[in-house]
Amino acid sequence: MKLLSSLACLCVLAVVALAVPAQEKRIHRQADLSDHAHEDAQGYQYDHEAFLGKEEAKTFDQLTAEESKDRLGKIVDRIDIDKDGYITHEELHYWIKHRQRRYIEENVNKHWTEYDKNKDGKISWEEYKNTTYGYYLGEEFEDVDDKAAYKSMLNRDDRRFKAADRDGDGIATREQFTAFMHPEEFDYMKDVIVQETIDDIDKDGDGKINIHEYIGDMFTPEEGESEPAWVATEKKQFTEVRDTNKDGYMDDGEVAHWILPGEVDHADNEARHLIHETDTNKDEKMTKKEILANWNMFVGSQATNYGEDLTKRHDEL
């Protein structure tokens, strides 16, 4: 039953939320391009994972140097969108962003056939709703313990689907369905993320978040339990930073500023870095020849791994 799997996902998210500091669980931050430190003097693992994606980088690590260079050459041809023989910053930036979003595309592809019942290459709201909630809709949620919670989930999905469905035809293209499943990746879905956050925290239903609701989302003391020191810090954060207009509440604009902080575009920085290190004639773009001459910055191989292992052993000694 799709509804049960949706609930299982919610449970997993709840566990994940408990695994991070309470103050951070609502904040949507950009995913790191790599788990490695960006220190070229110690190796190019960061650049490999940023350029290829974490999983694809591992496959290159098993190839010979010649195989890696051959595959890199084919990748360069794909990155060169206008086929003019040069890789510009815009093309490289697009490629890196695309590789980093690949896990999202794979997740959408995995669920696509479950919802696209008539196999027309699109998913209507009716298809999604009936697949996810079908049995319970017929029974008006009579067989579930918390009927209000299930109805709330349906309404939440309905609002999010309508926001993703930008042309308002009740049918989601693959891009729109991706926005529905991963709204944090799309600028035009930010209002939905903010509203869902307010819905979660706003217990009195006034459409705003007061300090008690803000703290209650992070910490609810057991009987006789004292507040941790960070709670006092968060109360001060609410009054001095979060509540910018000092009216005692966080409205939608203030919530957006809290959970969607402006951040550095890591993909943009990495594209600039790779071009700076590879562009030998300093025309601010790269040729395939320049990239292949500096191939081990872009992709790994058995040879580069062996060299990195020797360096590590030398450092340990």
Provide structural commentary.
The protein has about 325 residues and is mainly alpha-helical. About 60% of the residues lie in helices and about 5% in strands. The strands form three sheets. A two-stranded antiparallel sheet has the order 1-6. Helix 10 crosses helix 13.
Q: Please state the structural category.
A: mainly alpha
Describe the global form. Answer: globular
**In angstroms, what is the radius of gyration?**
24 Å
Could you describe the largest sheet, including whether it forms a barrel?
A: 2 strands, antiparallel
Low-confidence stretches: 7-21, 306-317
Could you give the order of the helices and strands? Answer: HHHHEHHEHHEHHEHHEHHEHHH
Overall residue-averaged pLDDT value: 86
* Portion in helices: 55-70%
Distance between the termini: 57 Å
Strand order of the largest sheet: 1-6
Helix count, per DSSP?
17
Number of strands: 6
Per DSSP, what share of the residues sits in E-state strands of 2 or more residues? Answer: under 5%
What's the layout of helices and strands?
Blueprint: H1 2-19, H2 45-52, H3 54-60, H4 65-79, E1 86-87, H5 89-100, H6 102-115, E2 123-124, H7 125-138, H8 147-164, E3 171-172, H9 174-181, H10 190-201, E4 209-210, H11 211-216, H12 229-242, E5 249-250, H13 252-259, H14 266-278, E6 286-287, H15 288-293, H16 295-298, H17 302-316
Antiparallel strand pairs: 1-6, 2-3, 4-5
Helix pairs in contact: 2-3, 5-14, 6-9, 8-9, 10-13
Offer a quick outline of the entry.
The protein has helices spanning 2-19, 45-52, 54-60, 65-79, 89-100, 102-115, 125-138, 147-164, 174-181, 190-201, 211-216, 229-242, 252-259, 266-278, 288-293, 295-298, 302-316, and strands at 86-87, 123-124, 171-172, 209-210, 249-250, 286-287.
